[in-house]
Amino acid sequence: xxxxxxxxxxxxxxxxxxxxxxxxxxxxxxxxxxxxxxxxxxxxxxxxxxxxxxxxxxxxxxxxxxxxxxxxxxxxxxxxxxxxxxxxxxxxxxxxxxxxxxxxxxxxxxxxxxxxxxxxxxxxxxxxxxxxxxxxxxxxxxxxxxxxxxxxxxxxxxxxxxxxxxxxxxxxxxxxxxxxxxxxxxxxxxxxxxxxxxxxxxxxxxxxx
Length: 209
Ligand SMILES: N[C@@H](CCC(=O)N[C@@H](CS)C(=O)NCC(=O)O)C(=O)O
Hints:
Bound molecules: glutathione
Structural class: alpha+beta
Strand content: 5-15%
Order of helices and strands: EHEEEHEEHHHHH
CATH class of the largest domain: Mainly Alpha
CATH architecture of the largest domain: Up-down Bundle
Number of domains: 2
Oligomer: single chain
Number of strands: 6
Number of helices: 7
Helix content: 40-55%
Strand order of the largest sheet: 2-1-5-6
CATH topology of the largest domain: Glutathione S-transferase Yfyf (Class Pi), Chain A, domain 2
Shape: globular
């Protein structure tokens, strides 16, 4: 099996960190870009035109990071990164989804609606031109501010995003905070809980996977 990748991109990073935590090594194929989009050969193989994607030895193509996580968690359960018992699993799923929807998608809204490389490519995965909208960048910035506050509050009573164990909720949240920094938005000074947590999870070897 192999993973099709854009190594520096935030969604593939969610997968790299997960695999590093589990100690799983897989062949990576860096997808080349054509006019900024994934190359035609890749889109033919995987018409959703997004990375990362896991291709199994039988040719099955699995996209969407949580689907790929679930596949590997089933193959190699330890360390458990999707939660352990029913309540814990539900909370991990909830907080990971919040980090994705309130966090990574809001930063992406800023990034894709401002960066010159994304003119007419404001959403990923589409061959149709999608124009940049400055209003969406502004809405994204406001969303990122709400994300910081929400996660700072959650981390005021939790060592990790959900309780005392590192999970995929931490992985996506870390990718949000570091992606936000790339677009010039840092954690507010008064988000002391988020900052404490960020130092903790950034010190794990997986953070540089
Ligand atoms: N929901 C998807 C998001 C994947 C995604 O948006 N990947 C970006 C890279 S971070 C991409 O493929 N971009 C392609 C493009 O910009 O055309 C997942 O969980 O895998």
